[in-house]
Write a structure and sequence with these properties.
5-stranded mixed beta barrel; 11 helices
């Protein structure tokens, strides 16, 4: 039986037995079958699994999904979401919790491996163990867990379950049946589910999981820290979401932010505070090293509603000069409001590449102020990219504080910045998407 599976050809629909030896970007295991790489979903490095081949078009690699665990890892757990478990057929598994079958500690060490591997292969940065630590334990500490919340009933810190954190969830509607649910992993098939274990209680209370919603395309559930949870609907064939521009309030510790219901806001209920604090601390370190000038041309690129510019101001004082650049006009309006207590803050609606192109044509005194400045950037998943990175290098700010949600994009941009003479002086990572393969990183670069 095993021998038959082991030698089965790699073609869609075939089942093969695989030994999973590593983890790849995207949260999939890496195995080999007759010399060819196979990316295996729902497995853990160290396991032997039987997997269904789902895609074998490429010569260099194939894709497969675990259907049975033959030798389980000690880190395998019952999936946190019954509807995403491997007891279901691959096409019936809910997507969005692809690490939900792994212990939280191992999830974090796998994320650390992905970061270290990306930094080594694309960024030219090798992770080294410090002191008596071996590399594995040094790596294990790179990805920091989110802080515990205090349970309002017991006044004790909540257990670290990695559940109940998403304040934003998008559900989809099956165009034929009207059923509402998440997409299946790697497909656009709507999977009806009984609950959303990664989402907050507020999101779960309003989630229309048992309803049929014909004529609706997407259902966005939003649970702001300062307002009641709400649902934004996109009707079939329309691009606007109902209520998307309604103002809502978010709290980051004791600081209030105005945001649009449909605008960008960090997803984990702890994430705004985690990233605010990390950027504030990075800027405080630059100040302590005499490398930060409050009156220089400081920038918060991809600035959203101004969360990270506010973090810079918390470290550098309310007299800091800083401009946010954001393509969404409504988010820029919110940033202007959120930063209104800072006399030196400006909020621009612009694409970052276009804004930087304008700055590069500015007068010599303006260019000099920008050269003495610090750039914070928090781009979408694709990263700054070669174009914006080249513009940053030409602008040549003293420091770059880069917040990244994709480790490979960060690593690629790290190489460009290092090649241009920037030194990577700090790197942290935060597990603010538990039970998924995602995590956030913060890298600090200093001009030599
Ligand atoms: C990851 S979010 C970060 C927002 C903000 N820093 C925060 O933490 O709330 C990225 C933001 O970049 C904006 N954006 C995406 N592409 C852009 C571009 N080319 N130029 C300017 N802003 C862009 C999005 O609208 C979004 O608000």
């Amino acid at each position: 039986m095993t021998a038959l599976h082991s030698s089965a050809p790699l073609e869609p629909g075939a089942e093969v037995d695989l030994v999973v030896t590593g983890i790849a970007h995207g949260g999939v295991g890496v195995a080999r079958h007759e010399g060819r790489v196979v990316f295996v979903a729902d497995a853990i490095p160290g396991e032997r699994v039987r997997a269904l081949v789902t895609d074998a078009k490429k010569k260099s690699f194939a894709r497969a999904t675990t259907v049975e665990v033959l030798d389980a890892s000690a880190d395998r757990r019952e999936h946190i979401w019954a509807e995403a478990s491997i007891s279901r057929a691959p096409e019936d598994r809910a997507g969005g919790a692809e690490f939900g079958h792994i212990s939280l500690e191992r999830q974090r060490s796998l994320k650390a491996e992905v970061l270290a591997d990306a930094m080594s292969r694309f960024g030219g940065v090798e992770f080294a163990a410090e002191g008596d630590d071996d590399l594995a334990s040094a790596l294990a500490e790179i990805v920091e867990p989110p802080p515990s919340f205090i349970d309002e009933e017991t006044d004790e810190p909540e257990a670290d379950t990695g559940l109940g954190y998403r304040t934003r969830v998008r559900l989809h509607v099956d165009p034929e049946t009207g059923a509402v649910g998440p997409y299946a992993a790697r497909s656009r098939r709507v999977i009806p589910v009984e609950s959303l274990p990664l989402a907050t209680e507020g999101v779960n209370q309003i989630a229309p999981l048992a309803d049929l919603m014909p004529g609706v395309e997407t259902v966005d559930l939003v649970d702001p820290s300062g307002d009641d949870p709400r649902m934004l609907l996109t009707l079939s064939g329309e691009s606007q979401r109902s209520g998307a521009s309604d103002p809502i309030h978010e709290w980051v510790e004791d600081r209030g932010f105005l945001v649009r219901a449909g605008g960008f806001w960090q997803v984990h209920r702890a994430a705004p505070a985690v990233l605010f604090t990390a950027v504030r601390d990075a800027v405080s370190d630059l100040i302590a090293d005499g490398r930060f000038e409050p009156g220089a041309g400081n920038l918060d690129l991809y600035g959203g509603a101004g969360l990270l510019a506010a973090a810079v101001a918390e470290a550098a004082g309310t007299g800091v000069k800083i401009a946010t650049v954001e393509s969404d006009a409504a988010a820029t309006e919110d940033a202007a409001e959120n930063l209104s207590s800072l006399v030196g803050a400006l909020a621009h609606t612009a694409r970052v590449d276009r804004h930087l192109a304008d700055l590069l044509k500015a007068s010599a005194p303006v260019r000099d102020r920008l050269r003495r400045g610090t750039v914070v950037l928090d781009p979408p998943r694709s990263g700054a990219g070669n174009g914006v990175t080249a513009q940053l290098v030409e602008l040549s700010p003293m420091n770059i504080v880069y917040v990244a949600c994709d480790p490979v994009s960060l690593a690629r941009d790290t190489r460009s910045l290092r090649d241009a003479g920037y030194e990577l002086t700090g790197l942290r990572a935060f597990d603010i998407f538990p039970h998924t393969h995602h995590f956030e990183s913060l890298a600090v670069f200093q001009r030599a």
